[in-house]
Amino acid sequence: MIDSEIQKIRKPRYEINPNILNRWSPRSFSGEDLRDDDLYALFEAARWAPSSYNNQPWRFIFAKKNSKHWNLLFNLLGDFNKQWCANASVLAVIISHKTFEYNGKPSVTHQFDTGAAWENLAIQATSQGLVTHAMQGFDYDKAKKDLQIPDEYEVMAMVAIGKKAPKERLSPELQQRETPSDRKPLDEIIMEGKFGNRVKIG
Ligand SMILES: Cc1cc2nc3c(=O)[nH]c(=O)nc-3n(C[C@H](O)[C@H](O)[C@H](O)COP(=O)(O)O)c2cc1C
Prior knowledge:
The chain has one domain: NADH Oxidase (3-Layer(aba) Sandwich). By secondary structure, the protein is of the alpha+beta class. The chain is built from nine helices and four strands. A four-stranded antiparallel β-sheet has the order 1-2-4-3, with helices on both faces. Helices cover 34% and strands 15% of the residues. The protein has helices spanning 4-7, 18-22, 36-47, 70-74, 79-85, 110-127, 140-146, 172-177, 186-189, and strands at residues 58-64, 90-97, 131-135, 153-162. α3 packs antiparallel against α6. The protein starts with a helix and ends in a 13-residue tail after the last helix. It binds flavin mononucleotide (FMN). The site of flavin mononucleotide has 11 residues, from β3.
């Protein structure tokens, strides 16, 4: 079922899996701990993403809020993201293997593959009543160094994971932005045959 809050804003042209619409990126997190099984189920969903040559380039380095690893990941964040990530239950850095394991050659699609894995994780979180928020607002070089990430991996993004809290817990400035977003119309993103050939929908 599509959440009522979502229904007001997101109006798909076709009926689709409700969890695709229900997933959005709030910033008000409750700060509660997650059960390990609930957390690991998200990575399980990521694990089943498709990838070129089934290379599975995605890796997730996570830290739970009340663990000794938390500060290492939290300190990578930019000031804007630090404001609201303080109440996330888990932070994760998503990295991607740049080469194929079977021949050591560069993979053209490793980012694409890892992107698919992240979306699996996000949709799974939605179906478990959890929320996720991806981020590029952090120090990529520091992540590589502080987390001792080998050179054959590229840092892709971070993600905050947790339980949603009322938006009133955010600063007034962030409260204004705490709403699901809309998308470009379908006929702007698909083209038939050649670039620029718009399709008439419906
Ligand atoms: C790779 C990536 C990086 C992002 N970086 C940030 C960020 O640093 N800080 C932030 O507040 N939101 C960030 N976002 C959230 C996007 O702004 C958000 O996904 C987008 O506006 C669409 O909204 P929705 O996720 O609620 O559907 C990021 C999202 C993605 C996928």
